[in-house]
């Protein structure tokens, strides 16, 4: 088998437009690589594109449709953000672990002291709640005073996978009781994957003090055997206001593509301006398997493999058995041994962005490194036409496989 059998794609149809507003904020409108899809003989735009607001694209209907009938689809979604650096992202985790991670003991002590809001703390449960989870779902019981946030419906717009607007995120945060000086503590099941994703989203919108409960629900419930309650708390209205998305911690496909193309031309070596770190399991990275669609509905990909030049560091290598993060020097050594060059920035990806956020948290918040999450991840890349893909099996995997 070839150690790195790289298939280079054709030139991308992807384009990027950037618009500066009077306030200096940057609105990035982007068109996905798989720009058009044939539907019943007609052509329907299924990507997002440039423009100054939501617009519709009308095309002729396919065979069998009524004469003159048109198909319409919204074809304009903007990522409104700005490049404002990492000053409000990094919280000094490289100086003190407690600046970005709180222990179960720390939280238990605060709960014993009484109302968390009066102490300037908001506790959030952001769990995946898979049926296979052995941990208690929020609706049955949860850590005292925790509020629940649904990662898939409350953070994103319907049908676009883009995040809610700055104004909508402000409303969400204020409804949770978040103020400018609030310490946001987040935990979840499934090894804190979606808790880390939520932490990244809060940082994306400029929250200054965001911390994970180290070890998450697993550490609290399963390892420590601490109290869970059924009471759902109410929160006083907060006053914190979100900023535009910080594009210094988020990578869109348009940014990843030229790095991947450079790496593909270099036979899969990492020569691009940023490291690429693939967080998925090795058989996914190698291209031996895609994804179990019955478990991860909607997350499958028609192409198997990885982005050229990406190194594979599954998230589990940086955590202990109880779900807590390993020490910072151990984590750094693991990534350096895998080939990550910390003299340049890093882009992390997985399948939909949640495990990549877990790695982002370790590298950015614990180590203080320059890291972005490519939240489109393999569910976007592996369903795009014309992007370069590396497959370590020497075979063609996925829908477009075969002899």
Automatic annotation (TrEMBL):
Key words, A-Z: Membrane, Repeat, Transferase, Transmembrane, Transmembrane helix
SMART domains the record matches: RHOD (SM00450)
Task: Show the GO MF annotations.
Answer: transferase activity
Highest rank taxon of the organism = Bacteria
Give residue spans, biased composition: Low complexity: 1-16
The keyword Metal-binding is assigned to this record: no
Q: Where is this region: Disordered?
A: 1-23
Which residue intervals define the domain Rhodanese in the entry? 117-229, 270-390
In terms of InterPro entries, this protein maps to:
Rhodanese-like_dom, Rhodanese-like_dom_sf, Thiosulfate_sulfurtransferase, Thiosulphate_STrfase_CS
Signal peptide positions on this chain: none
Which reaction(s) are listed as its catalytic activity? Answer: thiosulfate + hydrogen cyanide = thiocyanate + sulfite + 2 H(+)
Listed Pfam families:
Rhodanese
Task: Mark the transmembrane ranges.
Answer: 26-45
Name of this protein: Sulfurtransferase
The species this protein was found in: Nesterenkonia flava
């Amino acid at each position: 088998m070839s150690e790195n059998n790289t298939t280079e794609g054709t030139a991308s149809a992807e384009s990027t437009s950037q618009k500066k507003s009077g306030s200096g904020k940057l609105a990035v409108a982007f068109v996905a690589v798989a720009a058009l899809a044939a539907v019943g003989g007609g052509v329907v735009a299924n990507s997002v594109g440039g423009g100054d607001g939501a617009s519709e694209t009308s095309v002729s209907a396919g065979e069998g449709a009524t004469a003159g009938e048109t198909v319409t689809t919204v074809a304009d979604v903007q990522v409104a953000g700005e490049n404002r650096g990492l000053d409000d992202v990094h919280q000094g985790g490289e100086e003190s672990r407690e600046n970005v991670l709180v222990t179960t003991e720390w939280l238990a002590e605060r709960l014993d002291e009484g109302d968390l809001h009066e102490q300037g703390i908001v506790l959030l449960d952001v769990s995946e709640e898979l049926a296979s989870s052995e941990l208690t779902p929020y609706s049955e019981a949860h850590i005292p005073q925790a509020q629940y946030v649904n990662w898939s419906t409350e953070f994103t717009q319907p049908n676009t996978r883009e995040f809610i607007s700055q104004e909508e995120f402000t409303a969400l945060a204020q409804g949770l009781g978040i103020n400018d000086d609030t310490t946001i503590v987040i935990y979840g099941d499934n090894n804190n994957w979606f808790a880390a994703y939520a932490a990244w989203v809060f940082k994306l919108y400029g929250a200054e003090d965001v911390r994970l409960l180290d070890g998450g629900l697993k550490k609290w419930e399963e390892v420590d055997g601490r109290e869970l309650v059924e009471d759902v708390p109410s929160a006083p209205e907060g006053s914190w206001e979100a900023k535009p998305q910080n594009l210094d911690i988020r990578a869109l496909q348009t940014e990843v593509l030229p790095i991947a193309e450079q790496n593909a031309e270099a036979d899969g070596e990492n020569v691009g301006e940023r490291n690429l770190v693939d967080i998925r399991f090795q058989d996914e990275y190698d291209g031996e398997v895609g994804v179990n669609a019955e478990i991860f509905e909607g997350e499958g990909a028609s192409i198997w493999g990885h982005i050229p030049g990406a190194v594979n560091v599954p998230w589990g290598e940086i955590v202990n058995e109880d779900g807590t993060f390993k020490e910072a020097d151990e984590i750094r050594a693991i990534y350096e041994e895998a080939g990550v060059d910390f003299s340049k920035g890093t882009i992390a990806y997985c399948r939909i962005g949640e495990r990549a956020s877990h790695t982002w948290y370790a590298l950015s918040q614990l180590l203080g490194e320059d890291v972005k999450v490519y939240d489109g991840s393999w569910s976007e890349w592996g369903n795009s036409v014309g992007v370069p893909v590396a497959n370590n099996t020497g075979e063609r995997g996925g829908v477009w496989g075969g002899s």
